Structures are given as C-alpha cells and as structure tokens.
Amino acid sequence: MEFLPLKGADGWFRQLAVLHERLEAVGGHPILALLHRSTDLLSRLVVSDGSKTESSNTTAGSSLVQRRELLTLAQSVRDVCRSKLYETHWKSVDIVWRQTYTLSAAVIAVAEVQNVVCTRGDLQRCLRALDLGLLLGAPVAGVRLVDFAQWVQSKLTLSTQSSELPVPDQAHSRLYLDSCTPIEKNSSEEVSTRPTKLLRVEDSPITNARPCAGCESAVAHKSHPQSIPVRVLCCPSLMEFEEKCVRANAPYVIQGALEHWPALSKWKDFKYLRDLAGERTVPIEQGSSYVSESWGQKLMTLADFLDGFETASKDNSKTPYLAQHELFDQIPALANDITIPDYCCIGEEAEIRQTNAWLGPTGTVSPLHHDPYRNLLCQVVGRKRVRLYAPHHSAALYPYQDTLLCNTSQVDLENPDYASFPSFADAPPPLDCILGPGDMLYIPPKWWHHVRSLTSSFSVSFWWQ
Hints:
Layout: H1 10-25, H2 29-51, H3 57-85, H4 95-111, E1 118-119, H5 120-136, H6 145-158, E2 164-165, E3 228-229, E4 232-234, H7 238-247, E5 252-255, H8 263-266, H9 270-277, E6 281-286, E7 296-301, H10 302-307, H11 309-312, E8 320-325, H12 327-330, H13 332-335, E9 352-360, E10 365-369, E11 374-381, E12 384-389, E13 431-435, E14 440-443, E15 448-453, E16 457-464
Parallel strand pairs: 3-13, 4-5
Antiparallel strand pairs: 1-2, 5-14, 6-7, 6-8, 8-9, 9-16, 10-15, 11-14, 11-16, 12-13, 12-15
C-alpha cells in the first residue's frame, strides 16, 4: 500500500494548465519543460495508483522510481520560483511565481513520504515542504496545504516514541488536492498583502492576578517619572468601548475580557506548544529590532525556537522573535484556543484584516511605529511594556523617509539621541502601561507605540477596520 495515493487530481491538472499560460506571459519558459514533465509523471501515477494490485510488484517499483523523479523535478521548479521571490520586493513579485511555488511544495511533500514504512525523518521533510509552501507561496484553489500539514503533524505527534511509522489507513492518506474551479487567469485577489509595517522573517513569575480598582483607574505600574498611565476599562460593554475608545480615538487597557480563552492556561506551558506544533517551520526575526543593522530572519521549527529562549535572553543583539506572523492561519489548531474579541465588530467595516502572533523571550522589541488599523493587543503569556504617542506628535518622532519604514520612528525611545533628533526633546511624555496575562490594549489607528517584552511572552493582535 502506497503512503499517499494521487487520486482525484483533475483539479491539479487544470491549475497547471492555467499556470502554464501565465508563466509564458512573465518569462517563465525555463521551468515550463519541468512542469510539463511533472504533469506527465503525475498523470501516470494517478493511473497506476488506480489500477495497481498488491501483487503488482513491478508496477509498484516503477511507480516509486517515477515518484523519485517527480521529487527531483518539483524541487527544481521550487528552486527557480524561490529565486524569483528574491529578485525584487515581495509585493512586486508576480503572483504566478508564488502559486507555482505552492504547487511544487505540494508535490515535494507527497514525494517525500512514499516508503512502505515511513520514517519520522520522511514526515519531517514533508512537513517542512508544506510550511515553506504556506510561508512563501500563494493560495491556489483546491490545494489544501494547511489541512495536509495538520494531518502530517498529527502523525509526528503520535510517533514521538517511535523511529518508524506504520503505513496509515489509505482512506486518510490522500494528497490534499480537490477537484476545483481553476484559478482566474488575471486574478490576484487571493493573496493577502501586508499593511505598511515592514514584513519581518529574563523570565519572571507570571500571575493572572491584576488590580482593577474602578472602571477608569490608572495602571499601578509607573516605570518612568514622566510617563502618563494608560487608563483602564474593566470588561466594558460594546457601547462603552465604542464611545470611550473608538469614537474618542483613545487607547485603553481592557481587563477581564479574555478570561474565557483556553490559551491563558494552555500556552503558559510551552510543552503544549511543542506537542501541538513543535515540528512546524516558522519565520523568526533575529536582532535587537527590525531597524537594527544586524536584523535578519531565519526559518526554524517552533521547537528549536522555544529551546533557544534561555540563551537568547543573554544576547540582546540576537534576540529571536516570532513577530507579526499569521500563525493561526498556518496552524489552525492554535486558533481553537482563542476567539476574536467582540469589540472587533465595531467599526466602519468591522472586518478583521490580520490576526498576528507575537512570541519571544525576554527583551524582544518592536520599535516606535504606527499601524493603519484598529488594534487590540491581547496579552496571553508574560508581561509587556507599551508606550504610546498620539498621531499629532509625528513630526517630533522623526519617521523614516524610506517608503518601507515610513511608519517607523528614527528615535530610539529607550536611548534617544537628542543631538540628531532635537525636536524629540519637545515631545510630551508618552502614555505607558504594563500588560499582563488576560489584559488587552486598544491602540487606535496611526497611534505610535513601542513594545518591549519584560518576560518570555506570547501575545495576539487583531487588526480591523
């Protein structure tokens, strides 16, 4: 019995036909021959999987050779697409290259797990291929990389005590390719584009006890003599939130509104995250912040990232940070531990634009910047300090002139250079707060904010209009 039979792949062939036309239009001739050969091999494999019997050893051997050739071809296609992704700015890359990357990732994932006995290493390579498709590719109708990845992760979780895996039930081991309507030849609506923020690739006791003395009391912590505490609302009604936060365009700390989240208890034990998604590949920032010269990105498994927390806190120049990543789209099982706050239904469109994960050790920093959307920053694990400035103080904060960083201040808020940025001396004291587990901070659009983690921390932000 083969591990992943390639059946019901008619949607796959339709997608390839469309991509062939679009690749010709953008100069993709070098990989058209590879795609044609891949299509031919895939067609033969579908036929052989449908007609093979258990005694057909010759057919099975031929099929395995073809699948190995298919793996080599798909890797070649992926490599060409990957080179195209780095030739120019991400948003300028034609979507067809990312969609072709997605299809090649799907084929690689299938080809990686074709042994009669599938090893843990086979599954790990399969899962990495799928995650790279999710991170670097673009959505293609009928190619369900998310579902495929969840299924592989579940097999890896079951295999933690064994180096080899028995072949799964054939009914549950299908390539996640559906019969589907082909992608539109001139459509790019499926691809989400990031807002103006730049795209980015010491532990102390945690307590859920938070002071709540009145509906508009100040946060007790006041770490800077010139800072102004952000006001607090205790589980406000939708009407109160709309009046005091949205219409007044004012930041508030909101307490008592996340107590129903399973994440509050589950995520503080990082073993839960390792067991659920430890083998998943995620983009990790490295450096003191995304404006530092030493900043970079690295792809690694979530387990390796978590293992590095202790050493990371000793070297701030290489602090790792899973930042502004749509982790819950990549790993839907984590999304079961949270819910979209009801407050996000208030607005002109009341449409969630992005749900981002922010996970890192002590000392991660998001430099002073602003975002174009309403933002609810929800603190799940650990503590973070946030300082804010109103939009009308922008001139004193010296935004970068560079287009990619125009929403980011040149001022290092923790070590300001008044000689280079003299007007910052005239800026008013910032609003200041410390967020603990279960707290939310409402940040209105265009409000400048600087964030530093005071402990190992896991936060979720909801951007909406």
